[in-house]
Fold this protein.
Amino acid sequence: GAGVSQSPSNKVTEKGKDVELRCDPISGHTALYWYRQSLGQGLEFLIYFQGNSAPDKSGLPSDRFSAERTGGSVSTLTIQRTQQEDSAVYLCASSPPWASLAAPGELFFGEGSRLTVL
Amino acid sequence: AQSVTQLGSHVSVSEGALVLLRCNYSSSVPPYLFWYVQYPNQGLQLLLKYTTGATLVKGINGFEAEFKKSETSFHLTKPSAHMSDAAEYFCAVSGTPLSGSARQLTFGSGTQLTVLP
């Protein structure tokens, strides 16, 4: 079946512009994560959605970052007034219900959206 | 609080040689430990994981890792490297479900493995 789909795969924007990144998780997966991967660094947790529960936003680096998940499926990560330090690969991952409690950490990742802020 | 340290951002081995990628973790609760692999221009995929039980875990493509609590380590090994193993490898830690910190994976900074012919 289809994996996690992210769009756009590449985005180049000017400093100060807003960007939206989209994630379409695997059908039936209730958990959805956003991570940021910067050059030479590990993956930085941004936000986590689980079903209809309130999202865990503890990783969002500033109030310029926000995310929503409509209908428990597709998620959009929005970065307002982009800065050069926002340049990174933004990775989305999802996991099935059984994984969330029984075996957390079994995430299925998309190929990422590479954001370049000029 | 959790953290992961991967020693060596780049590791090079000859084809057929032993692969050893080091990972040390810090966790205030019993950890779940993972290795993920990222091939060029692809997303991460799970290589193997330790949750409970046997401390030596086997994953895909001949990789294995051993959880050593006394050393707070979870090093990744493979007896004989193949060219196709060239990729970036990430170690990650999460809490167990009962700890309340299971949701969040903390990743290391990654180790780029190069396999030389």
In short: The mean pLDDT of chain B is 89.
